[in-house]
Amino acid sequence: MKTPPGNLKSFANRLARHALSQKGAEALHLLRNSGLLENSAARATVQLEHRDDTSLENPDRIGIWERKKEGDQTYFVRNKEMARHWNFWANVCKIGPKKAKYRVILIGESVARGFLYDPLFTPAIALQNILQSVLGAEEVEVVDLARTNLGYEVKDLAVSALQLDPDIVIIFCGNNWDTCALQAAGVSIVDTTLREHGVPGLKAMAEKELALHVARLVSYISTAYREKNVPLIWMIPEFNLGDWRDPITNAPYLPEGMNLEWITLREGAENALRDGDLIKAARLAQKIVELDQATSVTPFYILAECSQRSGELEATRKYLELARDAVIWDTSKNTAPRTYSSTERALGEEVAKHSDLLVDLPLLFKEYLNGGIPDRRLFVDYCHLSSEGIQIAMAAAASCVLRKFKGAEFSWQALMERCALPLPEIEAEASFLAAVHNSHWFQSYELIHHYCRRAVASWSGIAQVMSNFVDLQTRRSPMFMCRAAEEISSLGSPLMQRYLLRFNYQRLDGPLLEAIVCALENSGTSVRRYLNELRRQEHSVSHWDVDLLDFYYCSEGLQQQEIMWTVPHLSDYLSHKPNHYYKAYWLESRFAFVGDANSPVDLRLTCRLAHPALYQEDTLLYINGKPAGKALIGSEWSTWEIQVPGNFVQDGINTISIKWPVPNFPGLKPLEDIAADLTEEMFPEFFCVFGEIHTFVASRGQKTQTAHIEAVEELSTVSA
I want to staple 690 with a disulfide (CB 3.0 to 4.6 A). Which of 15, 323, 465, 584 is the partner? Predict the structure, then answer.
């Protein structure tokens, strides 16, 4: 019998103690977490490693294509039973026998699929154009096996692709290799790590586990290809360091007293940065890093801004990379896909053991930008490439292919010129989709407006799509019952069909619609008056009661962590919602409603404090920045009514801000419940909750001259 790992000792000791106690429920949880009882977490790990059944090893299948035979000819056709997965892959019905002299296969995730450009312009198309321009149209073909959302399943896909008799294969992956590694380590290991080392220990563990997974994966695939004598090119992805910003959050649970100090330091650093005192801002940000041990993006963004303003380019890059890596441990919310430093290192080191065929995009992009930081020039979002980025990446891949085929050097700079960029219409549509995508990932208004302007500048015809989208997002009717959706669909654009109509959820979309309106105005098209009137007709609280916790309105608060429980698609992936009501993870919660100027509004708010307040403080409520009420809220559910006078209300979107009291932070105690959350397939609670809201409704109010807030009832029986 094998001796259990040393880091399970404390877990095993607690299991033994509880087995002899009356705490049967906790003992059961510990047994399940140890793996001694079958549990849902184990099943979840398997599901994460194989997110669909199309990539499992099968001698008669390659992804969604299954083997067929006619006489001496073997080919692969799309399996009809896999139809629900077709949209993740290239729109190719049949992969026939090899005909050209050279067959090149491209395997990868959504970056290799050409997200937002696919199917009109993809990396496979760009690669084939470059190679055929050098070798001849009949001499080489590129088979596109890239799949959106491809994760660790690439192992089986890569091995099965050998059935297509490739002369060389390119693997362009790494952005989806994250949480699987951590969960595969086991709930009991996670539990012990959190109890003994807190979240910093979990981060270190995640980095180590990810590196091990990547190394094993690369070794497995490389060995299989070496045995078949098929050359293999690996590509290391890059991240949009210059533009992408993860949501600013609070620190996770820290040892007693540190969370309060962290908040104080953050406020001081942000104030210093706003005042232009870069030395003070950087000094305070460094103290934040010492407190949370690099588990938060906040101090790194402050340090990056200080470095950028001081003209220190390499320091800026370093801090932006640290910010990118800071979220590797956090499985409590949706995190934009990315390649972490641990992935980059493991890929580079392991590939070097097997081959010299490596395309290092971080180094390549740095060279292309003359040392600059990768940004919107090369990306359309966090990791997906712009047409220019695709052009560069595939030119570098083609250089490796040609070196192997011809034994000669072809510079990627020269090969870039052989790749035709997409038509202006395609660029315009992809830019508009980038504006929508970035907005729905809570990026800056400046970035959203940039993509809207670029869309209009690329092709004037995009104005029709953008105007219809303004109408679509503002209607109360379900999206596919709106005439605007029908008109967008009638345009026949594959990009609009694939991305806009399939993945969009209607929401108030204040920043995005404002960016669209401004971009259209600059091109001579005015829809502002129409938007304002339509928004008032469809959403004004003067007409009907509005549930401010509904995703349509709640998303306008631009607080990703808070709105996760309302996101429509989460129920497709989880057996449980993260919460059954709104949880505030910061001192301020933001909401919005549509109103009419000088028309009073009544607010009905059922809420409570999640933890006792550190001081006897009121919860404050502001309307459009003006104090509108205060109340002493406790830990029991209470319903409050706030009467907002008409002179507080403006036409269009009005903002509500709730300022919660500073809680008495509980230290590291809540981390002991993380294992139970993981076992039950719940999003774990790594962050302190300031306040909780069960109900928040805005309705037409009565004429009044002063703001008023009043307790009307208590609801202590509302379930948690």
Answer: 584
The dihedrals phi and psi of 244, each to the nearest 5 degrees, come to -75, 135
d(CA 16, CA 23): 12
Residue with tokens 């910093």: 200
509, 558 contact by CB (below 8 A):
no
Q: Which residues contact 387 (CB under 8 A, 6 or more apart)?
A: 117, 121, 421, 422, 427, 430
Angle, helix 510-522 to helix 424-440, in steps of 10 degrees: 150
- 544 membership: H or E segment, kind and range: none
- The answer on pLDDT for 600 being more than 70 is yes
Query: For residue 255, is pLDDT > 80?
Result: yes
Neighbours of 79 (CB within 10 A): 16
Contact 52, 85 (CB under 8 A): yes
Residue 673 has a pLDDT of 85
Residue 41 has pLDDT above 60, yes or no: no
Q: What is the pLDDT of residue 22?
A: 54
Q: What's the mean pLDDT in 330-339?
A: 90
CB-based contact 696:556 (threshold 8 Å): no
Residue written as token pair 């090149």? 104
Is 618 exposed, middle or buried, given 0-12, 13-18 or 19+ CB atoms closer than 10 A? middle
Q: How far apart are CA 264 and CA 272, in angstroms?
A: 12
Distance CA(629)–CA(688), nearest Å, equals: 25
Q: pLDDT class for 615, splitting at 50, 70, 90?
A: confident
Q: Which of 76, 355, 326 is nearest to 229 (CA)?
A: 355
Instruction: Provide the pLDDT for residue 649.
Output: 97
437, 502, 503, 425: which is closest to 464 by C-alpha? 425
Specify whether the CB–CB gap between 712 and 603 falls below 8 A: no
How would DSSP label each residue in 172-212? E--TT-SHHHHHHT-HHHHHHHHHHHHHHHHHHHHHHHHHH
Dihedral sign for Cα atoms in the order 412, 415, 416, 421: negative
Give the C-alpha separation, 414 to 231, whole Å: 23
Order of strands across the sheet that contains 140-144: 140-144, 102-108, 168-172, 232-236, 358-360
Residue 140: how many other CB atoms lie within 10 Å: 24
Which are the contacts of 667, defined by CB distance < 8 A and separation ≥ 6? Answer: 253, 254, 255, 256, 257
Query: Residue 620, class by beta-carbon neighbours within 10 Å (0-12 exposed, 13-18 middle, 19+ buried)?
Result: middle
Of the candidate ranges 166-180, 283-297, 354-368, 693-707, the one whose mean pLDDT is the lowest: 693-707
CA distance 192 to 43: 21
Q: Which amino acid, 220? A: Y
Write out the two tokens for 477: 């009717």
Block residue for tokens 């010129």: 417
The two tokens of residue 63 are 């992804």
SS3 at position 62? strand
Residue 33's pLDDT band (boundaries 50, 70, 90)? low
Q: What stretch of H or E contains 685? A: none
Rounded CA separation 175/236 (Å): 9
Check residue 58 and give left, alpha or beta (phi > 0: left; psi -120 to 50: alpha).
beta
User: What gap in Å lies between CA 513 and CA 468, rounded to an integer?
Assistant: 11
Burial of residue 446 (number of CB atoms within 10 Å: 0-12, 13-18, 19+): exposed
User: Where do the DSSP E strands lie in 552-706?
Assistant: 582-584, 588-595, 601-609, 619-623, 626-631, 638-644, 652-659, 691-700
pLDDT of 361 reads 98
Is-contact 232 105, C-beta < 8 A?
no
Closest to 403 measured CA to CA, from 352, 357, 348: 357
Q: How deeply is 680 buried, as exposed, middle or buried, from its count of CB atoms within 10 A (0-12, 13-18, 19+)? A: middle
**Is residue 148's pLDDT more than 70?**
yes
